[in-house]
Automatic annotation (TrEMBL):
Species for this entry: Nonomuraea indica
Acyltransferase in keyword set: yes
N-acetyltransferase domain location: 2-165
Taxonomic lineage of the native organism: Bacteria, Bacillati, Actinomycetota, Actinomycetes, Streptosporangiales
EC number: 2.3.-.-
Name assigned to this protein: GNAT family N-acetyltransferase
């Protein structure tokens, strides 16, 4: 059974493990060292403190993915703009779980007062994230070329944006 809900403290090891997979094997994130659970605990607290959503999708009792909206940038004038993050466990892709997570994060971020949502997507050859965001009305706002070096490759990022209200 699939269940979408706010992240709980007990979910953080699963969140950390999913993210660690992408840190170690891909270019979806430019982190080079997986953050420990304690960093995820602090991130969860900061997101909750900002009144923003941090959700997990649970499948068969396991965390199959997570998504959150966090502040886009720390300067005060950006306070109404958020950046989304969505990650799925490797075996959980292609089943609509990303759509479930992103749709709910968009809805909750808008209800929390966010006006714009930005996605910064690494363009490393897998178009799944670009397609997911396009399905929710995100439009390309720009491209930053060769801004990340990971696994001996220069990676572009694509900036996507959509209005929330």
């Amino acid at each position: 059974m699939t269940k979408l809900r706010p992240v709980a403290d007990a979910d953080l090891p699963g969140v950390a493990a999913i993210y660690a997979h992408y840190v170690e094997t891909g270019v979806a994130t430019f982190d080079e060292t997986p953050p420990p659970v304690e960093e995820w605990r602090a991130k969860r607290a900061a997101i909750a403190g900002a009144g923003l959503p941090f959700l997990v999708v649970e499948d068969e009792g396991e965390v199959a993915g997570f998504a959150y909206a966090g502040p886009y940038r720390p300067k005060p004038a950006y306070r109404h703009t958020v950046e989304d993050t969505v990650y799925l466990a490797p075996g959980a892709t292609g089943r609509g779980l990303g759509r479930l997570l992103l749709g709910e994060v968009i809805d909750r971020a808008g209800r929390a007062g966010a006006r714009q949502m930005v996605a910064v997507v690494a363009d490393g050859g897998d178009p799944a994230s670009l397609r997911l965001h396009a399905a929710f009305g995100f439009e390309q706002a720009g491209r930053l070329r060769s801004v990340g070096l990971k696994h001996d490759r220069w990676i572009d990022t694509v900036l996507l944006q959509r209005a929330l209200r």
